[in-house]
């Protein structure tokens, strides 16, 4: 018997019951003689009862040969269950299987292997297996090894779920475990480049004779909300909402992998992926001709990869990817469009990957209390309605400009810009719960409620501007790192974290005391206006220099390790009470001072001169 250039795409399922099913395969049952080459099987294989020798391509392999072939379907059986072949029973010394691979998950009750369940004889060379393996007596490549030749074979240590090529973690001569990165970096030396091809960094090895041109790859990872891989889940990919591209079972690390003939994913299509029962979905809009890799499916998140320039275009492209094929996910489908606007399922978080030069929120986005997690290649702008979200966090190649009056954002969960500032206007109290790292300045404005900085706000080369409709506080790990701080508040300002601020260039506090602790020398320029309130400035290292105007009912100046100084020409202290403490001297001698009473006045060394 010889079979060449054929394929099987349908699922193979045995009848229910307790019968003994022997040699059940996705392409052929028993390959006992002849040559099978240049063939493939894509359907799932499910053998019930006391089935023996169950494989994704062949149930068993005897003295014949199988070459240049592959299988991608999941395999479920009882005993001697393999991703490609259930059992090899050919003549000892006969290398009967070569240049093959399998990608489907494998599950059985005994003798379960990524490539072969039971190897009694024969041989396998220059082949690989990457599917998840589940069951007792399992191996990443061979479930149980009796005899035979293995040469130039590989299995994936991350996706299989077992650290051994053979049963119980055993090593096998001729079989090596590789990571996904190692598989995809370059062809292994055993793989003939005339037979095998590879898309570096994107694909596993593929058989050139079975792919007339470079194949398309669609791959990524399914994770929990905490980003742990979800093993053994089904991922379904759809094209333009009308057809199902395929399904794949995730590996032990949550990864999934599709590889198809060029053109199966038409360039410009919108591909939507989902995992039934998991409450997650991802859309790749206007997909490129090569496919897409690194597509994340995160539980409770709707993820969108878009080249579009604004939110309305993104919603339009997404609408073209939704249809009967995605409706099969029912209420679990998180992605949606209503009235031309993005509309997610209640409680769904949005992960938005904007790949264009800039991205503009030109229409309102309402996520309720859910998260917006964004990655933008360029800047992020806002010309439309407000964003309602429990958390906004992300990164951008350019600046972040979320300044619409309608924003209702509870937490800024962190943001990093590679160039440009971070600017956010909020219509409610704002909590900074993740690090803000701006290549420019940082501007945080609330039109109602206060600002709480619980994590560092860093503007290494710019100004931090805090404008609060209430107070400003710095609990937890909050800190400001910037050359300049400026702003205003209508209640107490308490910035006593490990701040590293070079200067205060104007700050108006009309509602409460102002307190700042700084870890380096501090220069006051402009006007620090705490009229009628208490103003406290403390440095734990370096001097305090008053080169502007400070107004307060009570002014507390403390330099733990340095001096207190004042510009004779531009400095001015206008206070009812001045308390001054320093380590290396006090010189507050400007003729512009208006100090009613000097309270505490102490320096450990150096001059002590205060002009009232």
Structure write-up:
- The chain is built from three helices and 65 strands.
- The chain has 612 residues and is mainly beta.
- The chain folds into three domains: 3-197; 213-355, Immunoglobulin-like, CATH 2.60.40.1120; 492-612, no CATH class.
Question: What structural keywords apply?
Answer:
612 residues, mainly beta, Immunoglobulin-like, 3 domains, 30-stranded mixed sheet, eleven-stranded parallel sheet, 3 helices, elongated
Percent range of helical residues? under 10%
The structural domain count equals 3
The total count of strands amounts to 65
Whole-number mean pLDDT: 95
Strand share of the residues? Answer: over 45%
Distance between the termini: 108 Å
Q: What are the low-pLDDT stretches, counting only 5+ consecutive residues below 50?
A: none
For the biggest sheet, the summary is: 30 strands, mixed
What structural class results from the helix and strand content?
Answer: mainly beta
What's the helix count?
3
Q: What is this entry, summarized?
A:
The chain is mainly β. 3% of the residues lie in helices and 51% in strands.
